[in-house]
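User: Round two. Same drill as before: sequence, then structure, for each protein.

Assistant: Same drill it is. First protein:
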Amino acid sequence: MPTARDIVDQLSRLLPPERVLSAPSDLEHYGRDWTRQVAPAPSAVVLPGSVEQVQALVAWARRTGVPLVPSGGRTGLSGGAVAANGEVVVAMDRMNRVLGFDAADRRLRVQAGVVTESVQREARARGLLYPVDFASRGSSQIGGNIATNAGGIKVLRYGLTRQWVSGLKVVTGTGDVLDLNQGLVKNATGYDLRHLFIGSEGTLGFIVEADLVLAPQPPEQQVMVLAVPALEALMPLFDRLRSGLVLGAFEFFTDQALSHVLAHGGKRPFQGSAPFYVLAEFDADDEAALACFEAAADAGEVADGVVSQSRAQAAELWHLREGITESLASRTPYKNDVSVRIGEVPAFLSRMQALFQREYPQFEVVWFGHLGDGNLHISVLRPQDMAADRFAAECGRVTRLLGEVLHEMGGSISAEHGLGLLKKPFLRYVRSEEEIALMRGLKRVFDPDGILNPGKVVDL
């Protein structure tokens, strides 16, 4: 392996020298994502500006044996973009152009470094919608969204990122450029390799361009926040609302989560409180919303509620849900992002609450998530007097117990943030040995030298 100085010198001959970063502040900034459990330690950071430059970097990595870590907006929560062992970070920030729009196909072609919110703005400018949405929209990049098959707050209505990618251009670990599916709606010509790269976390190749399908703008939306008095009422309420309204989102958070948002400037939606809250977004319909609320109240499913009467109020209500992650950040939480079948959510919540009360009596555990698609986020807050390594070890121990419950219930240890470094040890709870062996085989085909995002998903 070349030294860090040699790596920087060699890379400066492949790319313009100003696109090769080695200052300690740059290495720290680009070498990690939103997780803080693994210290970043890349040898260098590069910012390619073209597909050809990405190919040149792959060829160099194969010659030298220095691995590459793809990097987008670094908003992941599993350590998927962390470079901790002298790798070179390949940041896609400069590959950030919109390449074209096809009105007949409603297809937007973009480079991987385009920020999600920019894609949403491009869609709105054309009277359309890019429906994949989440709180990190202002910093996450499309390449990273695709690499983790990002979900977010609109999955109930629009599905995951996978549904909105009609084509991909990728550079594999052998340096080959693959133009996959090319935006076709129908293409029955064997294996659709595009879908191997969606959710692959940069372990098979670099996503450099994407064809994104845009949707029609929905009708005007309203937001409702409801106070739910008991765990057992959550799923009957969900069934009631999706039967009476055209739902776009059905989100869940606890009173504990709400308290953290309120402490960071959020506005309490109503005077009363409850152990659980639901946020529902739906096609505007005051009469239907009132009828649903009254029926739910009569059934004991809700204790209070509010419906937005303006876009500003809707944004305030959404902040109660979207502001949770930011409000917890100072406590360096250990995060689990899990999923079960929708019908299993109440039983899973009940079992997990009992598990955490037994195993985490000294920790504060905050629950929230996308209840309408079975995805729950668990944030365990580190006590201020506990060392970070001891806290991580203790949380890892309980995550293994969580994995056993998920295995028993047919759930997933990672619903939408990938495996990265942190969740990879728990893959065996979700995938069989036969599946994992096949995943290793795919890794060998596309990245035979093991230079792409090593240590993530599976090992060679």
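Second protein:
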Amino acid sequence: MAIFSDQLRQGADFGPGDEDWIHLLVGDWQLIADLAFADLVLWFPVPEGTYKALAHVRPSTSHTVFHTDFVGERIRKDLKPLVESAWQSQDIVRSDTGLVSPGEHSMLIEAVPLVRNGRTLAVLSVHFDLSGSRLPSRLELTYRQCAEDLLRMCTRGLWPDFATPTGSRRGAPRVGDGFIRLDADAVVQYASPNAVSAYRRLGAAAALEGVSLSEATMALVKDRRMTDEALPLVVSGKMPWRTEVESMGVTLSLRAIPLRNAKGRYGALVLCRDVSELRRREKELVSKDATIREIHHRVKNNLQTVAALLRMQSRRMKSEEGRAGLDQAMRRVATIAAVHETLSQGLGDNVDFDELIDRQFRMIVEIASPGQRVKTQKTGAFGQLPAELATPLSLVINELVTNAVEHGLAERDGTVQLEAERKRNAVGEDVLLVAISDDGVGLPEGPPSEGLGLQIVRTLVTSELSGNIHWEDRTGKGTRVVIELPVAARR
């Protein structure tokens, strides 16, 4: 998401990579909010001499202290001195007493400057709820200590690390899924109950605390040849990467966050999540995708076989009328086969119809005009069309182009043009306009004769495409057929 407007960006003292670093922080600060059981707010100075809230995150491990969204608003007067002090001192500043939020929550607030290369870039305010009176558990104390470590790293520009993966977070482990803290030697200092359960499902028999996570994890890997090369570096806490480990039919997603200070790495956090069911479903989808592709491929092969049989039968026909009928059937089957060939190459809901029809348009004209010199022109673009429209629209264009060559040009040389335009109609609906025109003899007197081809066209346009079709005289000479069909509802 965009955090900084052009106005704020122009007034910021940013060096190379500073804005990207803040965006990286906001993309990953849910981790700190969950560990601290606190709301985080990002503040940035504005020309009016105050601070503006640019982003806000709520914890998923506790309730929020802010039930209303105040992103874009100016800072409260009682909070401004704290944020200003953190900005100037470049160190964490804490409130002396519990402040009261607009929702009447008693809070302890920390102002954490985001410092990089000696420059303060922004300030995080961390809002801890003091309304609870119970003693915190060991898990909560460990979580909060780790949050403090990460916030301290933010004041030195050490976290987030640009080596942290920024791709898809699908299956990424979260704090509540499983949490492990390591010392500098990768020995487990604390493992949450969910982390222990995840490792036991993986095959670990003993408790995790007091043992090397690297050794315990690698001992569970049966086939080292299939192991991700990043695994040893992740489970030892040396690199801020993500990886997966699989054993006994269970797959764990692991993420490491090294803890560093001015002297170097002094520990690490490792998050783990059982993604076995997620990976199983992904494998099923991959298998289904491959099956669908294979089905389309086989349908295409079968249709091509039918077309070849029709061609053979056509050559044996003595009747010209029968041969012409078989040739037309062969052409229609080949058109459907071409659509299935396109569908077998992708599994999206939409089809690049221009790629499909460009090849088919030239082929139709060549087949329909063996003794003529017919040029083809295509203007406009169909764009991405729903897969269910591809076959009927291809057949309609096939019939109309063939009709333009055979009857419109009437065995003369000429040009057949295919036009496509996406637009909105009078009532604001997205429609596709398709026009096939020729520079031939023009429309006959009275309505066009309803042969089998035109009957197929009318049926497909009205029933399959939910559109309408009409014939008109082309400007100059010739005939123009226009089809209008809705496309918005099928995207």
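Residues 277-347 form one domain.

User: Perfect.
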